[in-house]
Design a protein that fits this description.
Two copies of one chain form a homodimer.
Chain A (H helix, E strand, L loop, with lengths): L15 H17 L5 E4 L6 E6 L7 E7 L19 E3 L2 E3 L7 H17 L6 E7 L9 H7 L8 E4 L11 E6 L1 E10 L5 E2 H4 L6 H10 L22 H8 L5 H7 L13 H6 L3 E10 L8 E2 L2 E10 L5 H15 L5 E10 L2 E2 L5 H14 L4 E5 L4 H10 L3 E5 L13 E3 H20 L3
Parallel strand pairs in A: 3-6, 3-7, 7-17, 8-16
Antiparallel strand pairs in A: 1-2, 2-6, 4-5, 5-18, 8-15, 8-17, 9-13, 9-14, 10-12, 11-13
Helix pairs in contact in A: 2-12, 3-11, 10-12
């Protein structure tokens, strides 16, 4: 899959030419699949690739969304084969983006191509949006959706950017967490200081930051930002029962990911913590001397990337304000501190009873030969909330990858079997949608 | 001073050719000063430059020590002029190494050259050792001193690698803190994990490291490593009185260094905390995503560089063991953790009554026109303990730079006035030693 060879790392400006080349290749892929009308829409950031195939106005319209950008591949040293040299090994396709999200969206492109090459056209109208900024919070996508809301009109959206619960257990996701991603920078001195000359007398930015970071959660793992839990729903006993029935074991989960132990908010089982509870994580932290060997320095500055996952009706805007105030209130008086908000996306729920969700359930069962399950997802697909709010449509979240595919990590992969069944599921889904009744 | 143009960064292997070129230039400097016998001694690390000038066996011998290596100049962005382009501005010479230690040792080289060019030879026998690994803990110096102890025989050592207490207040340092420099690396998962998919359920290496780092000291700033304070002497009331008499004000100190506040062990004044109390500092810390923008990752690994300054008879070997055990005992069970020891040096005290220390006091007064003071120093000059233990000689610690010269920090500098007076002080000191009586 040549698509995977493009290092389309959206967060790093050095990769701008790769992003552009990847957008161009995405256009070519869609033309090859049979779309006659493929446009590349420039944004202040990276381009969006858009195509439409109007078959018959009387038929339903499916709006497919995916993203061609990827997160950085570092740490590079841990990849067994280079991240942008797609490699097949043991029935798996390895590359950054193999699973998140090029591999999954590729299933739908190939399904359309299959219809084009056999019956000459898909069984429903298709609109497809493939953006290049999902991994940096889609800063320009919402404006694009608002500006082109008429052109994007559809009956249902289809997104494959969530995992299956387990191999051979196709999954439809009905709940996504929201995201608030921040960066904290604090400063305690004009410059780095010699730790011999001044050690013991001056503040240390790294100690100050560690202290701050430790104040975000209490010993029970509960987030201490005021108002943080406003709008967090408690699950019904029925919903908890359904989660317990899903294939998950703490011991297997821990061993599969090589975890030293499990951690998190006290009183909630693992899947509930991952999908239906809000959380706060430190995504990165640095300061002082971080090179090889030793340097006897006291850090003047230290930084941390801190993100929160949100559920229910938690409002990222309100929490961003409360978080910023909390940070300012919890550093030692005199310390200079600044909080940047990198991205925000509200949480979203999808109705299990939607006729198109039911159509997806039928399609997955036909492709995988086993009934699909409903599950939540701890990650964030911000576009789903935008589709609901701006276009007024629900989204089918058809997971085609696996939890241990290593997305955002070294040796990201997708199984060739899932790629094949994903294409079949997409073929069936489009056929089911054509005949879906309200 | 061309010497300062060499980026002789000892901790970074990429600078090996620069180190070699700098050693060669150091040889040339000594030959230019009049030494006929200058050798470059290879070590498993960076070379030592050694020279001797035997004037008369009846005269005392001064062993001068300095180092031509420097710590890394980062963060580069904060330098007003490039660190390895020596630049004069406002009566200051700016460059990495201007103050620590090339500038200071240069004063002694110039003093010898002055004698050579006027009376043809110095007034005492001179031996000089200029090494290239001081900033990485002098891993090969001790073996060199042991192996060449006969050749290095001298009556007194002279080291200028400590600061004056204030401008126009020449200082002799009579106490140096020791150093124990460690690096901690911990791991909580096999790979970095997606913070959406797994956030709330898995351990976070950065949170684990922050928790560990916060456990090293209590709220009073007291180090919690068992046995840490064994061998820490309490100052006499007389010594405390002498410190109080030194020119120091907390408010001026805080404002000069741009500090947000002062911090440290409760119950001890600032100069006592800097010179005569042991301490523990975080010198660097990193993990997770530290690049531009956002990446929704939970760090599998995190690292910290942690160093301790030691006083009295604190034993770095014992503390290294206790520290390592403390780290292992204070991570969450299951977390993989490893502690590396980068360097160790014991603390050292120098007798104020030594006849050569008195000679230095006279020399400083002649050069600066004002009486010198005795002070402690928070930093570490490991060679001083080695000279005492292996060669059986004391060391005169003649500080020629200023506390705000920015050593180990951006915009390191030395005042041209101090360079000039440092040369004069060295000229006077050698003359005083020639006539010093027991």
């Amino acid at each position: 899959m040549t698509w995977l060879a493009f290092p389309s790392v959206s967060t790093n400006h050095a990769h701008k030419p790769d992003i552009d080349a990847c957008a161009e290749y995405t256009r070519a892929l869609l033309i090859d699949a049979g779309f006659s009308d493929v446009t590349r829409i420039e944004t202040p950031g990276h381009p969006i690739v858009y195509a439409a195939w109007q078959v018959d106005p009387a038929l339903p319209t499916v709006l497919i969304y995916g993203h061609y950008d990827v997160p950085p591949p570092d740490p590079l040293a841990l990849w067994e084969t280079p991240p942008f040299v797609p490699t097949i090994r043991d029935g798996q396709l390895f590359a950054r983006g193999a699973s998140d999200d090029k591999g999954q969206i590729y299933c739908h492109i190939r399904a359309i191509k299959a219809y084009a090459e056999t019956v000459g056209k898909p069984p429903v109208n298709i609109k497809i949006v493939i953006e290049g900024e999902e991994e940096i919070g889609s800063p320009n996508l919402q404006l694009f959706i608002i500006a082109t809301r008429e052109r994007l009109k559809a009956d249902i959206a289809l997104v494959s950017d969530t995992p299956m619960i387990a191999p051979d257990r196709p999954s439809l996701c009905t709940s996504l967490r929201g995201l608030l991603y921040t960066e904290i920078k604090l400063r305690v001195a004009a410059t780095d200081l010699h730790s011999g000359q001044h050690g013991g007398a001056v503040p240390n930015a790294l100690l100050e930051l560690s202290r701050l970071v430790m104040s975000f959660k209490n010993a029970q793992g509960e987030v201490q930002i005021p108002g943080f839990y406003d709008g967090v729903p408690l699950l019904s006993e029925q919903a908890r029962e359904a989660i317990r029935a899903l294939p998950h074991e703490d011991a297997a989960y821990q061993s599969e990911l090589g975890l030293s132990h499990l951690e998190g908010e006290a009183g909630y089982p693992t899947l509930e913590r991952r999908w239906y509870r809000p959380t706060l994580e430190i995504n990165g932290m640095w300061g002082g001397y971080t090179g090889p060997g030793s340097k006897t320095v006291i850090a003047a500055e230290a930084s941390a990337k801190v993100s929160m996952r949100l559920v229910g009706t938690q409002d990222p805007t309100v929490i961003a304000q409360n978080f910023t105030a909390f940070v300012h209130a919890h550093v030692t008086p005199g310390v200079h501190v600044h909080v940047d908000i990198h991205s925000m996306a509200p949480p979203v729920q999808v109705a299990q009873e939607d006729r198109f969700v039911r159509a997806a359930s039928v399609a997955l069962e036909k492709a995988f030969g086993v009934a699909s399950v409903f599950q939540g997802e701890g990650g964030t697909v911000p576009v789903v909330a935008d589709f609901k709010r701006i276009l007024g449509i629900n989204t089918v979240l058809m997971g085609l990858n696996l939890p241990n595919d290593g997305i955002h990590a070294p040796n990201e992969r997708i199984s060739l079997a899932n790629l094949e069944r994903g294409m079949q599921a997409s073929v069936h889904f489009l056929a089911e949608v054509a005949t879906a009744t309200t």
